[in-house]
Design brief:
seven-stranded mixed sheet; Jelly Rolls
């Protein structure tokens, strides 16, 4: 009898969890806003650019990212913290706002920038080497703000927060 109850409980749990899991794997709408933190970028010419970024820390948060969001307001974005240095491969599936992606080394230096990514594209956008984090901001921001490879991102995950 105990094994039947255990099996029944497991089946009920799976049925209850299935819609939540389906939303994560194949989301149909944007995730709720994530907790935000401050981040600054010090540019090659000494300017300090402030951003308020949502922190995508968990795999579920990172899987959904900025999907289905119609815009990314200026001065905001989403920081994907990979936890340690690794190759970062991104895509734009279900992402309707064009983005700039900044791939950031463990010490906070921008390693690579992918500008004007194509909404809804399944093409892989690669960091081109190990990075600690990926920052997604509104498309055109890197060019408009003259953000370049080598500029420094200051944030607690890099141990260099102001």
């Amino acid at each position: 009898m105990t094994s039947r109850r255990t099996l029944l409980a497991a089946c009920l749990s799976a049925l209850i969890a299935a819609p939540v899991l389906a939303q994560i794997i194949n989301p149909t709408g944007p995730q709720a806003p994530l907790p935000t933190e401050k981040l600054t970028i010090t540019t090659h010419d000494g300017r300090t650019l402030p951003f308020d970024v949502e922190m995508a820390i968990t795999q579920d948060q990172q899987t959904v990212g900025l999907m289905f969001r119609p815009t990314v307001p200026p001065g905001t974005g989403m920081l994907f913290d990979w936890g340690s240095a690794r190759e970062s491969d991104m895509w734009m599936r279900n992402t309707i706002a064009p983005l700039d992606m900044l791939f950031i080394d463990p010490d906070g230096h921008i390693h690579h920038i992918a500008e004007h990514t194509v909404p809804q594209s399944l093409a892989v956008i690669s960091s081109g080497g190990p990075v600690r984090a990926t920052l997604e901001i509104a498309a055109g921001s890197a060019e408009k703000l003259d953000i370049r490879v080598g500029d420094v991102v200051h944030q607690r995950i890099f141990g260099n927060a102001p």
